[in-house]
């Protein structure tokens, strides 16, 4: 009898949590939710994304935004100038002419303020301080999928809880260039029986919340760590925490890209496979589409999803935002999703690695690793110089 009551309570908690915080995967489901969020907005919408493309998906979302503006909803769109550089001027002008407030985060080049590395890497939509989508999914066909190709593997979280208000404040600060003046400490908000926090990473503004959260989760892991990692090249701090966890006997699994939109980075990651395997990590490669997800589950109770890649560029160069969820139910749901992905992956073992590790392949991976490390150091070094000059957003 007691067991039945406990089971009923657990199911009720899971149902309650899904009202407030819900896992979303890339594809039609994400974009249907995005359309619904925009269509139901009554006062204010913020969209901040790295890539907004002039394709079927981009035009579909743009149409929704224009309709919202016609309903007198205030629509704020912040795009990264580099990530969305291919967006035609006519597309941007059409948004503005329909009453949408559009801003690009910093030009790539500037005579008085030259820099490359610091990018606005958010993927956030929030409406009326009530509902939000936050994750790693940009607005483009490749994240939706087409008739001939699957969507890139990625994740987001839909929030219907007080964390959405926190998120809208942060988005407003960035849009109106107040990002450097306001430092809101991370707060855990109630979402049913779950706790939800918004984490920022902007090294230039002394915000390292995402990097710190990952590191602490790895350090304090008791049983298991599972990561979906695009562009996976953890710096010394995160790599050290992961390897220490492995030495403590923590089961560690990473789901990585078998194919990538940046082959050089994929080969650089492959250079690290031997070290990962030596530390008893399990490696799985997803080959059905590009891996773009940035998500993790630790001990089936702590989860994070967002824009933050486990590499030095996200740690020190880009402006990132993640959501962290303290919930067994949410973690188990995300973990189950990872298991479905793993079931369709190829596992990399020492044996399979030896079969592909010819001299030329090893040399190519090593060269790729050195090149990517050098590029990342360069891209993150320039923001450090600007920090010394008290650069402000």
From TrEMBL:
Kindly indicate where the leader peptide sits in this chain: none
- Alphabetized SUPFAM superfamilies for the sequence: Phospholipase D/nuclease
Q: This protein's superkingdom?
A: Bacteria
Q: Taking every annotated instance into account, which residue ranges of this chain make up the domain PLD phosphodiesterase?
A: 116-143, 287-314
Tagged with keyword Membrane? yes
Q: Do you know which Pfam families this protein is assigned to?
A: PLDc_2
Q: Extract one GO molecular function annotation from the record.
A: phosphatidyltransferase activity
GO biological process terms, semicolon-separated:
cardiolipin biosynthetic process
Transmembrane intervals: 366-385
Q: What are the entry keywords?
A: Membrane, Transmembrane, Transmembrane helix
Instruction: Report what the protein is called.
Output: Phospholipase
| Upper lineage | Bacteria, Pseudomonadati, Bacteroidota, Flavobacteriia, Flavobacteriales
